[in-house]
TrEMBL record, chain A:
Subcellular location: Cell membrane
Membrane topology annotation: Multi-pass membrane protein
The organism's taxonomic lineage, starting at the top: Bacteria, Pseudomonadati, Pseudomonadota, Alphaproteobacteria, Sphingomonadales
Source organism (scientific name): Qipengyuania qiaonensis
Principal location: membrane
Protein's recorded name: ABC transporter permease
Automatic annotation (TrEMBL), chain B:
Transport is among the record's keywords: yes
Domain called ABC transporter: residue spans: 19-246
Keyword terms, alphabetized: ATP-binding, Nucleotide-binding, Transport
InterPro entries listed in its UniProt record: AAA+_ATPase (IPR003593), ABC_transporter-like_ATP-bd (IPR003439), ABC_transporter-like_CS (IPR017871), ABC_transpr_LolD-like (IPR015854), MacB-like_ATP-bd (IPR017911), P-loop_NTPase (IPR027417)
Superkingdom of origin: Bacteria
Protein name: ABC transporter ATP-binding protein
Highest classification ranks of the organism: Bacteria, Pseudomonadati, Pseudomonadota, Alphaproteobacteria, Sphingomonadales
SMART domains the record matches: AAA
Pfam families: ABC_tran (PF00005)
Amino acid sequence: MLWIAIRMLTGDAQKFYGLVFGIAFSTLLITQQLTIFVNLIERGASGTYNVSNADIWVMDPVSRTTDVAYAMPATALDKVRSVPGVEWAVPHLRSQASVRTKDGDLEGVAVIGVDDATLIGLPKRMLEGSPDVLSQPDSVIIDDVGMTRMFPDGSPIGERLELNDQRAVIRGIADAIPSFTSTVVLYTKYSQALNYVPGTRNRLSFVLVGAEEPAQAKALSERIERETGLKAQTRDEFAQDGIDFIIENTGIPLNFGITVALGFIVGVAIVGLTFSLFIRDNIKQFGALKAIGVTNAKIRRMVAVQAGLVGLTGYGLGVLGTVIFIWSFSADPTFKGFYIPWQIPLISALAVFVILALTGWLALRNVLKTEPASVFR
Amino acid sequence: MGQPLDTTAIGGCNPEAAICTREVTRDFRAGQQTITVLHGIDLDIRAGELTFLVGESGSGKTTLISIMCGILWPTLGEVKVFGTDIYELGDTELVEFRLNNIGFIFQQYNLIPSIDAANNAAVPLIAQGMDRIEAREKAVAMLEKLNIGDQASKLPSQLSGGQQQRVAIARALVHEPRLVVCDEPTAALDATSGRRVMDLLREVAVAEDRACIIVTHDNRIFDLADRILVLEDGKITHDGKDMPEGH
């Protein structure tokens, strides 16, 4: 009987495709929007993830994220270095600046000062050049977002910039995770960054710490807090704070939530309507089957199989559509590094299940209510 | 044939009767009103006979046939089909009883449009749980018996009305039911086709151990009946080989 159910469904091509489209559209909307949402808010942690070798970030107690930080006095570095369990500690500066390109355009940039000696604070990979270029005078390394945005027509290597009224020369390109706002990032040595960024008394944004025992980073961060009075967070904690900051301070979760809800509602509307039409058109056949001797349990299984087929096909197409979308935009820096977390297809599958269960149940009610005797009328 | 059955046997029903109804009454509610469609019908249908149930629209024949084949509960009375009091059965048992004992031929055929003639005819066997390939083979054999074996792979939309009717007959007979119920089998056919379908039904549906009831008001085929029951206002007003005068 299940085979007959499938043939009944696929035999009405118009409605079958309508149902599949409804589910595929819902799945695409839910999966794609959730994927963009998750990847976008994870960008809140990009500043942390770009510094892969720091186990702990130490900052002023009021600092919240890599971009919302209150500078500390330079003595903070020595305080942290004196805490037992700290293998190394280096200064890290993050600040905003303006650059004027040779075409005269103005661009807001983030300047990141990395440790002069170890260059800790740079992203792990370089697209062009090596970290050593920072030893040359006025050197900066631009991230790939900046390269695409400021120099769309060619390589920026050797290009001169006017950075806060001072000369900067691009000598390398870093392969970095873009920030939430896709701001252009310029990496330079800490000592050089102090020259680029307008002076205030305190300019040390963070102290990056390597633990003697990385597995004990949490305990070490607590010890640093106790002994220095500063705020210390493990890499994962600080990354999460960056994400939470975006969730708490922007309307993004609400906006994406609305779109996901719309995807669900549209799915219910299209699938519900089409499924009801399909059942209504076949009500005589279902009535005949009931008269002949097909039990309600079998009818339920038939409708469940029809819903299952529509669900699987539509869901597969929807997820495939999302994969194609992400893949086709992967070259765009805005979507760089985007991936589909495994939980998202699972959430979409659950949404599809709920849509089909709801609409299938509504449609099934009509079938079950149909009296077998109605076939004689 | 023609001998009145002994209705004083066990439970008021003669064991030889294929179908026996006693005091069958059926009410329908229409708003505040209760309309009685059948008034205490007592009836015995024999196997081996082609029985016509005749009456005007609204006379209650569809209600009676629905009750006799177990798809509509009577308000009062009892119905035995081959000795089984079908309304004493549980819901699932009654459905299974229909599946195993009754073949239906509907006026609109009610074939499934997206499967071919053979698979349509095989539906009762598939519903009984038979393997689909085997069920199809049996259905094709039945279609051949009905002279449309060559149409087995066609969809209902590719068949003429008469051919669709034959597929419906094949579906009603493929699982060898003991009772065949036909609802206006000739209503949608012209006189020649209708006659041909009735000849066919007589040939394949009427058997010693099978009862065949046809609901009709098509006076072109009354002469083919072994027995004609006339229903008027929910009561049997005539029971005989021929139609009464004036009808």
